[in-house]
Amino acid sequence: MATLAPAGPGEAASAALDELSLNFTYGASGAGNGSLSGAWYRRNQIHLFGVLLAILGNLVISISLNIQKYSHLQLAQQEHPRPYFKSVLWWGGVLLMAVGETGNFAAYGFAPITLIAPLGCVSVTGSAIISVTFLKDNLRASDLLGMTLAFAGTYLLVNFAPNITQAISARTVQYYFVGWQFLIYVILEILIFCILLYFYKRKGMKHMVILLTLVALLASLTVISVKAISGMITFSMTDKMQLTYPIFYIMFIIMIASCVFQVKFLNQATKLYNTTRVVPVNHIFFTISAIIAGIIFYQEFLGAAFLTVFVYLFGCFLSFLGVFLVTRNREKEHLQQSYIDFGNIPDTTLGRKAWRETNVGQNTTRFK
């Protein structure tokens, strides 16, 4: 992670180069400042705890998604499938999903938004690894390349995200909440949101970019409120109680409302478009929106050197490219090699034929 840069532009560039060399130094003599050294760890251990929570949370989410998928496949193979919400396996996946999201929520209390939000790529790549291992999906060359790029991007993100440790108290949140930067940002966001909503509702334009942009605009408010709530809870546990301030409950309402409407627009996007198109675009839009929110509201890149920001953005680009390669054409392969018996789906050609034959046989038996 990058440290705050000196005042002068020349000194800032020099410090960024020093940081770049230190972050890639492992075998040098002396105490060492590289990414695996004790000095680097002590300097960033609070943020690393947040990173660990986010990575574990995203991996648990990957496991939960594959468990739910496996439960659906099992139910589809049964002669008389039960509703999925009666499956113990499906509820186990839901429980793991809640645990993973809790880990992500807690991570925002220990590390900057600009560090935690891009780590969502771990969920996508982890899900691909698990599906290949346990659900016997095909392992493609693009999967290996995508995972490699995502891991490389994650490494750069962890090393070059802003090294700003903020104690998020209620007064801090109130100060940022009424700041002119955030007020201008909210006005612009509301304006863009209303324009897109007009085209979506009145003009019937349901393009994927419009839907996912609406999701991203809401997501920026979600990550701001989530970090505020998580930070205030952490501050309450380590210092002074913050849950008595009205700003805590204001942020809580913003978090719930923005999450509910995010789910609505995201569900609409998944109904109209393939998941393989929605997942990477949504990840990119969400991450960009979260980074902008962290920069504007919490001022997380204040004083950062240009080279540090450039390497950080390059890490984001690698993670985006990795997610795209992992999800590319994944759904088409599932259609070609499906675990679902088409005789159980009346809406398909084979399914309609099998469904008619089954029901005719049942009716003949019933009237005998």
TrEMBL record:
Transmembrane segments: 46-67, 88-110, 116-135, 144-162, 182-200, 209-235, 247-266, 278-298, 304-326
SUPFAM superfamilies given in the database record: Multidrug resistance efflux transporter EmrE
Origin superkingdom: Eukaryota
A Pfam family matched in the record: Mg_trans_NIPA
Protein name as it appears in the record: NIPA-like protein 2
GO molecular function term, any single one: magnesium ion transmembrane transporter activity
Record keywords, A-Z: Membrane, Transmembrane, Transmembrane helix
Keyword Nuclease: no
Cellular component, GO, one term: membrane
Bilayer disposition of the protein: Multi-pass membrane protein
Originating species: Piliocolobus tephrosceles (Ugandan red Colobus)
UniProt family annotation: Belongs to the NIPA family.
Compartment(s) where it occurs, according to its Swiss-Prot or TrEMBL record: Membrane
Cross-referenced InterPro entries: EmrE-like (IPR037185), Mg_trans_NIPA (IPR008521)
Principal subcellular localization: membrane
